[in-house]
């Protein structure tokens, strides 16, 4: 093994140790960047082989690989799979609250002594100074941050304990390349992830979201009762082909819909974050072991779910953003066999997501947090690293917002001035969040190819309609009339609007509308004729 492994070395390991024929799209580019010493933000769908991107170079690089992962069960699965390779270089251990203290100490000592190739930690463990000292002593050659979207305060799975991961990694000397992994991240979330993890000159790689095996449908209803009856009928029909997931908007709805499906003769389980750990584990086990036909769940069900043969994902309620929707949809058909994703839509349901949306905090609250940060009080988390990791989610969001504002206003700015800047940032974030919800409305109501719509939102292009959505089947999906050759601006062009400011062209709907992601106003779908005739968009 050399100190400077090449891509050829990694490919050999992929074939000889993992039995791969070759690296997949996205894996190759990410590994090449890591071997060149660059940080990487890799966005690949669930089941596309994200873990291989750190496992393969991790077996070749001279030092251990540190993996920061939020789920204990997922850590244990990864350790088990590495040990089952039977390769002496694949020695792995996890340090978590589920491991006895003696085993945690032994794992950290082994890492520091160079006896481990992979060390798995939760973000909370990384906040522990003793653990961090052991990581520094181990001198990792690569760091992977799994489920990296959890660091984003704009993400739908925000976890406060992720907020300090970036600064903790900055204390490593030498600082190794950092690989941020996620299965979902729209452009605003990607930017936030890169900033909060302190990624340097990061290669941003987005691949594999087309998922042509998943058929996309939207069923529009008028009355809530009609929608619920339609959900039961459709799920009962889809369950004849295999197991599935129904996502709903509230904890109460999990029980209501599960009971309705049970009355229709299906084996069901309800799942949400308010259940006891044992109840959640049992529901997940029954789902994995095919003891239920369908799990009815909130968005709490998903991270760490490893079941390739899910045949359908039904959304009985509208999710808050296309980010959340496409990640949940991506849990279907991971075995490559046909699957279906159905969204049941009532415009009135958007109000539920507005109710749950993170609002703009009060200026007085922001001022208090700014004061506490200025004097190193509890809001700054300096009282203890462990307490910092356990901050309530709302306080963690406030702190992150105020810290962003201090960076703009200056470290010496008065708390009132910092609070004003933080309030402006929160207003901008609210506009972006609302625009993401409006993009869900647009997805549900578009006559265009639904897959083209989602991929454009995620920053990928699909040149032609997919042929696997209800718009394509109905004949309403038109060929993309505005391609890079004929459109005024190609996808990815930076443009400026007199009211909305600077933004990025995300794509086109038909031949008359352009979607732009503005930095402070979020997604806006504009009339192409209006912006060109009146000169409202200019390339920056």
From TrEMBL:
Residue ranges of domain Helicase ATP-binding in the record: 31-203
InterPro entries associated with the record: DEAD/DEAH_box_helicase_dom, DNA_helicase_ATP-dep_RecQ, Helicase_ATP-bd, Helicase_C-like, P-loop_NTPase, RecQ_Zn-bd, WH-like_DNA-bd_sf
Protein name per UniProt: ATP-dependent DNA helicase RecQ
NCBIfam families for this protein: recQ_fam (TIGR00614)
Keywords annotated in UniProt: ATP-binding, Coiled coil, DNA-binding, Helicase, Hydrolase, Isomerase, Metal-binding, Nucleotide-binding
Catalytic activity: Couples ATP hydrolysis with the unwinding of duplex DNA by translocating in the 3'-5' direction
Helicase C-terminal domain segment(s): 227-377
Any coiled-coil regions, as ranges: 418-445
Similarity-based family: Belongs to the helicase family. RecQ subfamily.
Record keyword Isomerase present: yes
EC number(s) on file: 5.6.2.4
SUPFAM superfamilies xref list: P-loop containing nucleoside triphosphate hydrolases
Disordered, as annotated region: 483-502
Record's keyword annotation contains Isomerase: yes
């Amino acid at each position: 093994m050399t100190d400077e492994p090449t891509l050829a070395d990694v490919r050999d390991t992929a074939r000889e140790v993992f039995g791969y024929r070759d690296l997949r799209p996205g894996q190759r580019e990410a590994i090449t960047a890591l071997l060149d010493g660059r940080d990487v933000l890799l966005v690949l769908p669930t089941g596309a082989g994200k873990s291989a991107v750190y496992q393969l170079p991790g077996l070749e690089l001279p030092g251990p690989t540190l993996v920061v992962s939020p789920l204990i069960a997922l850590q244990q699965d990864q350790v088990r799979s590495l040990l089952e390779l039977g390769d002496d270089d694949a020695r792995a251990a996890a340090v978590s609250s589920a491991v006895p203290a003696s085993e945690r100490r032994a794992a950290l000592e082994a890492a520091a002594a160079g006896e481990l190739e992979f060390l798995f930690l939760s973000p909370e463990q990384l906040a522990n100074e003793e653990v961090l000292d052991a990581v520094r002593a181990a001198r990792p050659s690569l760091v992977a941050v799994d489920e990296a979207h959890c660091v984003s305060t704009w993400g739908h799975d925000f976890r406060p304990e992720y907020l300090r991961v970036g600064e903790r990694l900055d204390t490593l000397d030498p600082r190794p390349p950092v690989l941020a992994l996620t299965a979902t991240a729209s452009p605003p979330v990607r930017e936030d992830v890169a900033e909060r993890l302190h990624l340097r000159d990061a290669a941003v790689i987005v691949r594999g979201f087309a998922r042509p095996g998943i058929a996309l449908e939207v069923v529009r209803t008028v009355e809530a009762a009609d929608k619920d009856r339609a959900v039961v009928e459709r799920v009962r029909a889809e369950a004849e082909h295999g197991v599935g997931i129904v996502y709903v908007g509230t904890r109460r709805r999990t029980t209501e819909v599960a009971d309705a499906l049970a009355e229709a003769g299906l084996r069901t389980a309800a799942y949400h974050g308010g259940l006891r750990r044992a109840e959640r584990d049992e529901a997940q086990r029954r789902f994995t072991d095919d003891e239920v036909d369908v799990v009815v769940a909130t968005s709490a069900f998903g991270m760490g779910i490893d079941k390739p043969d899910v045949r359908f994902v039904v959304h009985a309620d509208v999710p808050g953003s296309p980010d959340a929707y496409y990640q949940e949809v991506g849990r279907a058909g991971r075995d490559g066999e046909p699957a279906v994703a159905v969204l049941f839509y009532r415009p009135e349901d958007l109000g539920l997501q507005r109710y749950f949306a993170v609002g703009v905090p009060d200026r007085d609250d922001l001022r208090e947090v700014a004061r506490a940060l200025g004097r190193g009080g509890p809001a700054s988390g300096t009282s203890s690293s462990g307490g910092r990791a356990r901050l309530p989610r709302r306080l963690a969001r406030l702190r992150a917002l105020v810290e962003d504002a201090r960076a703009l206003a200056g470290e010496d700015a008065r708390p009132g001035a910092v609070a004003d800047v933080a309030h402006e940032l929160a207003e901008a974030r609210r506009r972006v969040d609302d625009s993401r919800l409006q993009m869900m409305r647009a997805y549900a109501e578009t006559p265009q190819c639904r897959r083209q719509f989602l991929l454009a939102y995620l920053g990928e292009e699909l040149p032609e309609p997919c042929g696997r959505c209800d718009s394509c089947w109905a004949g309403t999906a038109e060929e993309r009339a505005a391609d890079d050759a004929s459109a005024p601006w190609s996808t990815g062009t930076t443009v400026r609007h007199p009211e909305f400011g600077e933004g990025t062209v995300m794509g086109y709907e038909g031949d008359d509308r352009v979607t732009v992601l503005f930095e402070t106003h979020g997604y806006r779908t504009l009339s192409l004729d209006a912006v060109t005739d009146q000169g409202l968009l200019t390339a920056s």
